[in-house]
Backbone:
């Protein structure tokens, strides 16, 4: 098995959304991360980042959301260009698992024509809700004519405990994370169940969380997983991304 973390976008947001005690309107940059895993001759993605077009015209694709979450400093990089650097074309992808269906996590889904998609059933319901656009969902990002498997419990993808989805609701109703057991390293990829490392230490609930109680419960679950030896990969922590995730490193 090997794993790469891939740069699949970059956005600017108000910091106080993630650091609730902050009183200033200061903005900060957030990395958008996808994970590529090759295991048992299967090419897997966990999340697909931002659609490449948002670098040029985010409003056209995201509407008003592009004002809250503004693509910045992408420098021509997106999941498709980053996969190319490791020799993978979109048609090579067999399986896409979406942590949830916000457009910075499923924006490139449309490129993976040969893939089967996994997503939690509560997330599909939530993204189909009549007020879904107010919850940050954009239908054209995820509602595609692809093979879709809905999950409702923790799912062991190969039935060997190596790659397992875990329910981590709170950011959205159907948010999931991914446990990946490599030979030498164990990751729990939390996506937006934990946006920033500091949120876990300080038990901070970002203002964009759908259900604060549930996200705090998911933090407890993540703390237990961390204690058992997993590295938590946060959804949007630039410090972790730049200093600890070793972009370009192949984990195996
Ligand atoms: Zn996100």
Residues:
């Amino acid at each position: 098995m090997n794993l790469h973390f891939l740069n699949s976008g970059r956005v600017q947001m108000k910091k106080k959304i993630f650091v609730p005690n902050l009183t200033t309107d200061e903005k900060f940059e957030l990395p958008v991360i996808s994970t590529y895993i090759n295991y048992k001759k299967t090419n897997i993605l966990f999340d697909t980042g931002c659609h490449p077009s948002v670098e040029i015209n985010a409003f056209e694709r995201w509407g008003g959301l592009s004002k809250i979450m503004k693509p910045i400093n992408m420098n021509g990089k997106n999941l498709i260009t980053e996969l190319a650097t490791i020799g993978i074309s979109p048609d090579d992808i067999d399986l896409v698992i979406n942590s949830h269906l916000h457009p910075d996590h499923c924006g490139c889904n449309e490129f993976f024509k040969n893939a089967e998609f996994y997503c939690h059933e509560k997330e599909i319901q939530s993204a189909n809700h009549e007020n879904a656009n107010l919850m940050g969902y954009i239908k054209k990002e995820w509602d595609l004519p692809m093979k879709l498997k809905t999950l409702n419990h923790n799912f062991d993808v190969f039935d060997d405990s190596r790659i397992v989805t875990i329910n981590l609701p709170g950011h959205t109703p159907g948010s999931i994370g991914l446990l990946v057991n490599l030979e030498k390293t164990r990751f729990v990829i939390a996506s937006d169940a934990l946006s920033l490392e500091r949120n876990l230490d300080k038990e901070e609930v970002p203002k964009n969380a759908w259900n604060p109680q549930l996200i705090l419960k998911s933090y407890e679950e993540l703390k237990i997983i961390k204690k058992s030896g997993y590295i938590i990969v946060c959804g949007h922590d630039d410090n972790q991304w730049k200093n600890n995730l070793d972009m370009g490193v192949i984990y195996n």
User: Anything to note?
Assistant: Residues 2-243 form a domain with the Metallo-beta-lactamase; Chain A fold (CATH 3.60.15.10). The two ends are 6 Å apart (CA to CA). Helices lie at 54-62, 65-68, 79-85, 121-127, 139-142, 197-201, 212-227, 238-243.
